[in-house]
Design brief:
heterodimer; A: 4-stranded antiparallel beta sheet; 9 helices; about 20% strand; globular; B: alpha/beta; 7-stranded mixed beta sheet; 6-stranded antiparallel beta barrel; 7 helices
Chain lengths: ~300, ~280
């Protein structure tokens, strides 16, 4: 009989049974993976981004494979907050794990309206504010690249909604630390990092961008070192819990983020590659804890030392 | 929990490999559960490597299933780094397969005349369908048209011909069968009155599918197409493989886009907006 490892972590007032979450946009609304994944074993589910009104998303092609990664420009296709609450939330709730709803919008008022509506809906554990989606024209990016606008948005949602708030940060900035600090000072209970890196691929035969949106967000193992570095930097500058993400496919990958200072991790693109990836990450974490006689996983948070 | 049995990733070992054209390889894999469950038109999502590059799975239509032996045949067109790895796989090598996924072809009513139109590597699901139809007791009449640029790209044509009552090969350069495009002989078939219900099924390059869809719409002939797209997840979550939706009369859906992996890959031709520039 192997020694049980306590994988639970505390985050934004929530107790997660495991530090392994799924990243927004990579797990749909949970039901898409219900037949393939033991969803109840996850630490939390983060939903596809939800906006006030339905969004059709970008024209295709929307995705493109790149070395050890992929570009996507889905464009926040979603049915809108009302249909989300009516159709998507009840089955999500039934998985029995915390449901974190990713909220997106074009204006501060949009975010506030969606947050208010979600706060009234039973079964929403927390909100993740997508201030950093690179694939929509309005809102999205320009908010997440400036500390003052980030603070304004977070503060407005904070005032309107009692749910725990997680702000998802964009790596497409010169210095992420002041933006992370602004989000925390404005009332963010935790931070997710990183969103995708803006990238582009060109079809050399057609002499045209591959994606109809021209640019897309780069994800997958290709971005992991960037994400680990930003997790390390932000962990040293803020005191709220971090959710690390970017190319995680194994327990070892996840541990890089945890040791850099993340409290939890989210698996994104890895879900597409292998629906068993979150179980694989979990086995890897448990195995690591046993090998290193760690009985409480949370003791590993930020344990990396500069030699 | 029938679904949890249906959709799991499984190791499948290559038991036979045949180079059918310079560009195409037929792989037979031992995948008993998929062989048991797959219906014509469905696909498997194949993980190319256990590493991170190439990262994404590749979708392959199931070409033939042998539920007794537990074999699944895939037709691989070697067009890039991912498909090359699959195409060059030797006997004994194994891949992680997810499936069967997606929607199958709706079968025609008894005694119907099924007209199968294949272009290039799009022949794979047409062979699956011909195989399925030829095994029913519904007395279907199967006519197959198979087009390619040139003779050597008419991959596995014997597999389709052997399962059809009539078979016609069409090549753009006239190297085998009729010269031209499949739409020529298709018009000839559709314009002859037929006492039986006619249903057209097509898979191939998009201009061919758009032309077939238009010809069928003009003649009020039922038509189903199988589409191919780059896919992320293959299970409907990532919304990466969408195509523009049409809204025929009576359609109450407000969807702008349809997911090829989950809403398809088989669609009623009238559900697709063939005129959209992004198709």
């Amino acid at each position: 009989m192997m020694t049980p490892v306590d994988l639970s972590v505390e985050l934004a007032g929530l107790t997660l049974q495991s530090p392994i979450m799924v990243a927004s946009g990579t797990f749909g609304y949970g039901t898409e993976y219900a037949d393939l994944v033991e969803v109840g074993a996850l630490g939390a589910i983060v939903t596809k981004g939800v906006t006030l009104e339905p969004r059709a998303g970008n024209p295709p092609p929307r995705i493109c494979e790149t070395p050890a990664g992929m570009l996507n420009a889905i464009g926040l296709q979603n049915p809108g907050v009302e249909a989300f609450i009516r159709d998507k939330l009840p089955p999500l709730r039934d998985f029995g794990v915390p449901v974190i709803v990713n909220v997106a919008g074009s204006t501060v008022e949009d975010y506030v309206a969606v947050a208010r509506r979600l706060a009234e809906a039973p079964g929403v554990a927390a909100l993740e504010l997508n201030i950093s989606c690179p694939n929509v024209q309005a809102g999205g990016l320009h908010c997440g690249v400036r500390p003052d606008l980030t603070a304004e948005l977070v503060a407005a949602v904070r005032a309107a909604c009692p749910l725990p708030l997680i702000t998802k940060l964009s790596p497409n900035v010169t210095d992420l630390v002041p933006i992370a600090q602004a989000a925390v000072e404005a009332g963010s209970d935790a931070l997710s990092l990183i969103n995708t890196l803006v990238g582009m691929a060109i079809d050399v035969e057609k002499r045209a961008p591959v994606l109809a949106n021209r640019t897309g967000g780069l994800s997958g193992p290709a971005i992991r070192p960037v994400a680990v570095r930003l997790t390390w930097e932000v962990a040293r500058a803020v005191s709220v819990p971090l959710i690390g993400m970017g190319g995680i496919m194994t327990g070892r990958d996840a541990l890089e983020f945890i040791l850099a200072g993340a409290t939890a991790v989210a698996v994104g693109t890895g879900n597409f590659v292998d629906p068993d990836v979150t179980a694989e990450v979990r086995r890897g974490l448990e195995d690591y804890c046993r090998r290193h006689q760690v009985t409480r996983f949370r003791d590993l948070i930020g344990a990396a030392q500069v030699g | 929990m029938q679904n949890s049995i249906m959709m799991r990733s499984r190791r499948a070992t290559v038991v036979h490999r045949q180079q059918v054209t310079p560009l195409h390889t037929q792989l037979r894999l031992r995948a008993p559960e998929i062989a048991n469950l797959a219906a014509a038109g469905q696909f498997v999502h194949l993980r190319v490597t256990s590493g991170a590059d190439p990262l994404l799975r590749r979708p392959f239509s199931v070409m033939l299933c042998d539920p007794v032996e537990g074999f699944v045949d895939l037709l691989v067109q070697n067009v890039g780094r991912g498909s090359e790895i699959v195409a060059l796989a030797g006997v004994g090598q194994s891949f992680d397969l997810l499936g069967p996924l997606g929607t199958p072809f709706p079968l025609p009513p008894p005694h119907a005349h099924a007209v199968l139109v294949a272009g290039g590597v799009g022949v794979a699901p047409m062979i699956a369908l011909a195989d399925r139809l030829s095994r029913t007791a519904d007395d279907h009449h199967i006519t197959s048209l198979f087009g390619a640029r040139t003779e050597e790209l008419l991959c596995c044509w014997q597999e389709l011909a052997g399962r059809s009552h009539e078979f016609l090969a069409v090549t753009e350069d006239g190297s085998l069968g009729e010269p031209g495009l499949v739409t020529g002989p298709l018009a000839g078939i559709l314009d002859v009155p037929d006492p039986e219900t006619r249903v057209v099924y097509a898979c191939g390059p998009e201009p061919m599918l758009a032309a077939v869809a238009r010809m069928c719409a003009e003649r009020a002939v039922e038509c189903y197409v199988s589409l191919e797209r780059w896919m992320g997840c293959g299970v409907g979550a990532c919304l990466g493989c969408v195509v523009p939706a049409a809204h025929p009369a009576g359609d109450t859906s407000d969807a702008t886009y349809l997911r090829v992996c989950k809403d398809g890959p088989v669609f009623a031709a009238g559900d697709i907006d063939w005129g959209a520039s992004c198709l």
